């Protein structure tokens, strides 16, 4: 339940792979130019086809299913936005596929051709394409001349940070010296360079510096999180961390190559640091020390992976009886790490003391991690030094010169099968995104967001909410008490659409970053200053009460939604309120099919099995009755059975003799599947209600499809994707259901879809057994 809200815990540290990401995609200038030319050509063709096809529209629609009863005859929408939308449908659709056989292939069968993978791309989706377009917009803004150049200007700070990061000349001159000169002296040196303090080395002090001053996840991590029992307050959480890869890759017999790739990455980085330290070392000594370094660091990470594989998260870790006072942590977890000194050093301005209680998300893991350190043997001090140094290498490699970046890049390529990397500007953008996202968001909404989209999305949201209220009253597994509570919670929910007003206020933005120092000529020092700024920010978060109306926990240029039950609020950032998912000028069948389905899906999470643990004020209260829970379990069992016979793949994976398939875990996925299916059902009912109230709308040009059919195509095309097998397989083994399986499984459960496309009984897109949902 709580993993859904990880984004709200303000964790700027990466959990497992801090600097290795599956990127979205990049466009070359020529690709953009050709795409624009192609779009103009397609739109022109569609417009001409629309005029020709006007007469045949009704007949074509009847051949596939029912025509729209709300269209006002054969009238076609020929506005620029309608033509653009129709062109988008044509580009992705594969008309050679029968919609009742495989609707995803029908709606998205050509998406891989219009959004192909290339050496720079591992995955493309509609959502990631939108996000990348937002990145390009932001890149253009932060590379533009500074308007407000005062020292205190938030605009100046974000633009100078980006400028310093993209200054490859200074990075090439510095090589590895920032780590060698600015970090190693402060952590007691490094075994490989021979400046390590040996048995006199102070592990506890070095660990505090690495983890807090240099903001590097080693052994465990901490975060400021919302208190599950009082959502106006925040608490300190301790959790597992400290590995360079997903824990499974250290242990599985099928991932030997990943382990070898990691060791190669470690070896290359160590060799570069030796070279850049300007010390004299013969080849034999250098080889011996490097191999010892690799063995030490890799052994500790493998030990952590073994612990991860055999431990489970703490059940209900926020329960008061499971919290532990800071002064009692060594008694509870072990003495190898001085948790008290570590936490008090981090939270030195948040009214935190020895009696402050913290939450242990992985109590067993933390205890066994301490036991593991105690059992490292006679070389424990050296091993700990090498491990901490490696964690920082992995954290900062991409902030150094090109050779270090390339060492990381090779590991990335071997892991994900993509022979390219982020590149300087995109990496620097991601750094700005991680550290200074409010400053970026302010620039984005000022320059690239149509306020009319923010204002008009309320119209769709209001009708969707009305349809949810109607569906709640007819729901068969909610009893009367649960129905009333669900309606009340929806009525009391807070809708955050677009962006917060403070982002348009220069004084507010300047104050937000008033303690941060940024120098356009010293990137690495800027990163260290940001580390200190984040520490300050986390202290403020912990000390102050939550102000849920004013606070926005998502980036406003993000392209995803969330329903955050602890604050009973729906969050829809400006970044997703854009074409092709939403635009105020798009036909409503598009807006309801795509954005409406998303809104309904996430609103369902306010009243479903997850939302049932939080009342209308965000307090933890199980307001589902026992009767509702029992009846819901019957429906969930139906959904589990429906998905448990489905598989994802096959995927061709390097090192595997045969293609791999991954079964869907129906028990795990059932709750999400119910929200997804119900979201589409409710959005469709909302569209029908809007059509009745507003007299319908004109049809899409040149497609021969009814508005109802276009609704379902809009939903399906929201999920179009193209990704390589490595990434797809990694998603599948983590339990992420692929979009093609999701779309087909959802729509086959919806009677209105089968009616719209006239799908015969027992056809692939008309499931014989339909499960009861929230709609």
UniProtKB/TrEMBL annotation:
One of its GO terms (cellular component) is plasma membrane. Keywords: Hydrolase, Membrane, Metal-binding, Metalloprotease, Protease, Transmembrane, Transmembrane helix, Zinc. Its cofactor is Zn(2+). InterPro entries: MetalloPept_cat_dom_sf (IPR024079), Peptidase_M13 (IPR000718), Peptidase_M13_C (IPR018497), Peptidase_M13_dom_2 (IPR042089), Peptidase_M13_N (IPR008753). The keyword Kinase does not apply. The keyword Protease applies. One of its GO terms (biological process) is protein processing. The chain crosses the membrane at residues 32-53. Residues 563-772 form the Peptidase M13 C-terminal domain. GO terms for molecular function: metal ion binding; metalloendopeptidase activity. It comes from the Eukaryota. Residues 99-500 form the Peptidase M13 N-terminal domain. This is Endothelin-converting enzyme 1. It comes from Pinctada imbricata.
């Amino acid at each position: 339940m709580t993993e859904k809200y990880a984004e709200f815990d303000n964790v700027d540290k990466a959990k497992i792979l801090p600097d290795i990401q599956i990127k979205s995609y990049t466009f070359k200038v020529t690709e953009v130019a050709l795409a624009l030319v192609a779009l103009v050509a397609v739109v022109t063709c569609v417009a001409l086809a629309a005029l020709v096809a006007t007469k045949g529209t009704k007949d074509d629609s009847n051949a596939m299913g029912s025509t729209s009863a709300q269209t006002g005859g054969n009238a076609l929408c020929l506005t620029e936005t309608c033509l653009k939308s129709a062109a988008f449908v044509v580009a992705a659709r594969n008309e050679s596929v029968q919609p009742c056989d495989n609707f995803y292939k029908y709606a998205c069968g050509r998406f891989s051709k219009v959004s192909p993978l290339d050496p720079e791309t591992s995955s493309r989706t509609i959502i990631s394409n939108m996000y990348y377009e937002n990145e390009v917009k932001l890149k253009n803004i932060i590379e533009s001349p500074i308007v407000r150049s005062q020292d205190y200007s938030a605009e100046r700070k974000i633009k100078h940070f980006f400028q310093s990061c993209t200054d490859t000349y200074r990075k090439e001159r510095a090589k590895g010296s920032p780590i060698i000169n600015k970090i190693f002296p402060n952590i007691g040196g490094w075994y490989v360079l021979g400046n390590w303090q040996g048995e006199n080395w102070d592990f506890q002090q070095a660990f505090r510096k690495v983890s807090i001053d240099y903001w590097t996840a080693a052994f465990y991590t901490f975060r400021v999180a919302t208190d599950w029992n009082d959502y106006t307050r925040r608490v300190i959480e301790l959790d597992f961390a400290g590995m360079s890869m997903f824990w499974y890759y250290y242990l599985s017999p099928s991932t030997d190559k990943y382990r070898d790739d990691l060791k190669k990455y470690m070896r290359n980085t160590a060799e570069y640091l030796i070279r850049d330290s300007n010390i004299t070392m013969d080849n034999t000594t250098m080889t011996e020390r490097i191999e010892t370094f690799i063995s030490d660091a890799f052994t500790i990470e493998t030990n952590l992976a073994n612990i991860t594989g055999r431990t489970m998260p703490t059940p209900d870790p926020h329960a008061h009886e499971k919290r532990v006072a800071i002064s009692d942590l060594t008694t509870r977890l072990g003495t190898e790490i001085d948790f008290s000194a570590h936490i008090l050093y981090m939270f030195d301005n948040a009214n935190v003391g020895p009696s402050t209680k913290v939450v242990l998300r992985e109590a067993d893991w933390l205890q066994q991690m301490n036991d593991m350190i105690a059992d490292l043997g006679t070389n424990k001090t050296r091993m700990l030094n090498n491990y901490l140094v490696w964690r920082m290498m992995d954290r900062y490699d991409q902030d150094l010169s090109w050779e270090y970046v390339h060492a990381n890049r090779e590991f990335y390529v071997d892991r994900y099968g993509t022979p390219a990397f982020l590149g300087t500007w995109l990496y620097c953008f991601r750094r700005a995104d991680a550290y200074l996202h409010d400053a970026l968001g302010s620039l984005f909404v000022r320059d690239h967001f149509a306020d009319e989209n923010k204002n008009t999305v309320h119209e769709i949201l209001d009708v969707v909410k009305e349809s949810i209220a109607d569906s709640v009253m007819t729901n068969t597994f909610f009893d009367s008490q649960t129905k009333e509570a669900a309606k009340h919670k929806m009525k009391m929910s807070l809708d955050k659409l677009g962006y917060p007003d403070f982002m348009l206020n220069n004084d507010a933005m300047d104050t937000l970053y008033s303690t941060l120092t940024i120098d356009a000529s010293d990137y690495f020092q800027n990163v260290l200053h940001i580390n200190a700024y984040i520490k300050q920010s986390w202290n403020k978060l912990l000390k102050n009460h939550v102000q849920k109306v004013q606070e926005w926990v998502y980036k406003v240029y993000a392209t995803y939604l969330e329903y955050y039950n602890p604050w009973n609020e729906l969050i829809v950032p400006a970044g997703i309120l854009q074409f092709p998912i939403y635009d105020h000028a798009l036909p409503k069948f598009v807006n309801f099919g795509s954005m409406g389905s998303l809104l309904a899906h996430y609103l369902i999470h306010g009243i479903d099995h997850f939302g049932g643990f939080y009342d209308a004020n965000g307090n933890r209260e199980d307001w589902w009755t026992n009767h509702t829970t029992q009846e819901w379990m019957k429906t969930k069992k139906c959904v589990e059975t429906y998905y448990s016979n489905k598989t994802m793949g096959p995927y061709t994976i390097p090192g595997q003799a045969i293609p791999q398939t991954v079964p869907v875990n129906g028990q795990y996925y059932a709750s999400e599947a119910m929200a997804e299916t119900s979201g589409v059902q409710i959005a469709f009912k909302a569209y029908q209600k809007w059509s009745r109230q507003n007299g319908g709308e004109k049809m899409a040009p040149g497609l021969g499809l009814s508005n109802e059919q276009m609704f379902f195509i809009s939903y399906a095309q929201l999920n179009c994707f193209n990704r390589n097998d490595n990434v797809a397989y990694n998603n599948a083994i983590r339990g992420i259901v692929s979009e093609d399986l999701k779309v087909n499984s959802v729509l086959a459960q919806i009677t209105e879809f089968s009616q719209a496309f006239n799908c015969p009984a027992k056809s692939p897109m008309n499931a014989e057994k339909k499960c009861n949902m929230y709609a």
